[in-house]
UniProtKB/TrEMBL annotation:
InterPro entries: Glyco_Hydrolase_99 (IPR026071). Signal peptide: none annotated. This is Uncharacterized protein. It is found in: Golgi apparatus membrane. One of its GO terms (cellular component) is Golgi membrane. Keywords: Golgi apparatus, Hydrolase, Membrane, Signal-anchor, Transmembrane, Transmembrane helix. Pfam families: Glyco_hydro_99. The keyword Nucleotide-binding does not apply. Its main location: Golgi.
Length: 484
């Protein structure tokens, strides 16, 4: 209060009541304008500088699981080269992340590209302008301010870094997942926030093969996608040699197939194309347009949204269905309460069925208005509940959303506590897996898969973590066993 009075008297004169002289007004305005310009300049300088900095120094070995982050010398985390994997458990994998080459390892495919990809995913506006105006569209600035509610233990990595792929495969083998469903766009295409990913498929297949892990493709939507372009995509992945690679995942198909083993392909947002159009390529009626009995035939799994979608997929010619969404209330088919009915209907139509589960959902970094879809993790309790429901219905397997979809907060990949504070721009405190280790969800996934498949062995380093974490993990599993 005394300081304010002193300032007032200084500006207005000793009396404090006289009208401000014009010279003092001009001086005050000039000072305020200069201050504003300096702060604006510093803010922009800070943003430019921070986004160009090397990644933060993190103790990557804090949890007991040494993923050997010295990227010049990758070696196995375990001598369990024959560790059991479940090929009935499919994990969704995203290879769309990229970082400037100077921040990633030189053993990379990013060809001197110095741009970020997906870690700086834009904030999406709400479709209702009145709602949208209340939410930030501030850009993200990697490596500190990411388009994610969690911070990855590996930092904002490049999916094209071959050493990162090795580390991921070791994590995935540790967790027991046998099949990765890899997000894919046709050659030269990508989503609005990314770069083409087709050039990473062969490296993924080759490295996955060394770990006994299988790969299949998750066809993403793109502009003007239709059944004709889908056929072209299937011809491409056949002619390219993806589907004939020893690491590509095949199943004994059940429809329009003469009992052959067929490569598996998931189709995201399959509902956008009308069933009458799908019939042209997925049913064997028209020899010219159908993929059936052709060299590029596949076991095609479509997206289930409603409780009667198994019938629609069957009539369209699909071989199976999956539910994908794990956020609260996103679709009826994604609710575990509907899975028993969906399972019965898919079985009736001889379709494979893969209910999708996840540890949680939190996408506010890219959809800041989407609080209704948040699904809290509850220290693993949510994950256990949905896994239990999925394994106790008649299905062909379980799909996990996700290994590394960081934007939507569904990842089981290792994550660390981290916060970034800067008064010149936005600050952020990331969510984390505390009080448990960065590998908590990898461990929990392994225990659930062992229960699902009646496996008995664990990775050599499974128990190398805090006793409180181990106690909680086994408490969760015992709860699942008791209610089974």
């Amino acid at each position: 209060m005394g300081f304010s009075l002193l300032l007032l008297q200084t500006l207005m004169g000793d009396s404090g009541y006289n009208i401000l002289p014009r010279r003092r007004i001009r001086s005050l305005l000039l000072f305020l304008l200069t201050l504003f310009m300096v702060l604006t300049f510093l803010r922009q300088l800070s943003i430019s500088y921070q986004s160009d900095m090397t990644p933060i120094s993190i103790n990557f070995n804090q949890s007991g699981l040494d993923w050997n982050i010295q990227l010049d010398n990758i070696k196995s985390t375990s001598d369990d080269s024959t560790l059991n994997l479940s090929y009935r458990v499919h994990g969704f994998y995203y290879a769309w992340y990229d970082a400037p080459q100077k921040l990633s390892n030189q053993n990379s495919l990013n060809n001197n590209d110095n741009n970020w990809s997906h870690w700086n995913h834009r904030r999406l506006k709400h479709w209702n302008a009145r709602v949208a105006i209340g939410y930030s569209t501030e850009p993200h600035y990697p490596p500190y301010l990411l388009a994610s509610s969690f911070y990855p233990k590996l930092g904002p990595y490049s999916s094209k870094d071959l050493n990162i792929i090795h580390i991921h495969m070791e994590m995935i083998r540790f967790a027991g997942i046998g099949v990765l469903v890899v997000s894919w766009y046709p050659k030269g295409m990508s989503d609005d926030n990314g770069k083409p990913v087709d050039d990473i498929i062969f490296p993924l297949l080759n490295i996955a093969n060394k770990y006994g892990i299988k790969i299949c493709l998750h066809l993403e939507p793109y502009k003007n996608r239709n059944v004709s372009t889908i056929v072209s995509d299937l011809k491409y992945i056949y002619e390219k040699g993806y589907t004939s690679h020893p690491a590509y995942y095949h199943v004994s198909a059940n429809q329009y197939d003469d009992g052959k083993l067929l490569p598996v392909v998931y189709v995201y947002d399959s509902y956008i194309i009308k069933p009458s159009e799908w019939k042209k390529i997925l049913q064997p009626n028209d020899e010219e347009t159908t993929i059936r009995n052709k060299m590029y035939n596949v076991h095609m799994i479509g997206l289930l949204l409603e409780t009667n979608d198994c019938r629609i997929l069957y009539e369209s010619g699909f071989n199976g269905g999956y539910t994908y969404f794990v956020g609260h209330g996103i679709s009826k088919a994604s609710s575990p309460d509907t899975w028993n009915d969906l399972s019965n209907e898919c079985t009736m139509y001889n379709l494979t069925f893969y209910p999708s589960i996840g540890p949680g959902y939190h996408d506010l970094s890219v959809r800041p208005w989407n609080t209704a879809a948040i699904q809290l993790r509850e220290f693993g309790s949510r994950y256990i509940q949905v896994f239990h429901k999925a394994m106790n219905i008649q299905s062909n397997g379980i799909s996990i959303v996700s290994f590394n979809e960081w934007h939507e907060g569904t990842q089981i990949e290792s994550s660390i506590p981290f916060e970034w504070r800067n008064y010149l721009k936005q600050s952020k405190v990331y969510m984390n897996y505390l009080p448990y280790s960065p590998e908590f969800y990898l461990r929990l996934t392994r225990l659930m898969i062992n229960q699902f498949e009646n496996f008995t062995s664990l990775p050599r380093k499974f128990n190398e973590t805090d006793n409180n974490e181990l106690q909680w993990l086994y408490t969760l599993i015992n709860k699942m066993i008791k209610i089974a």
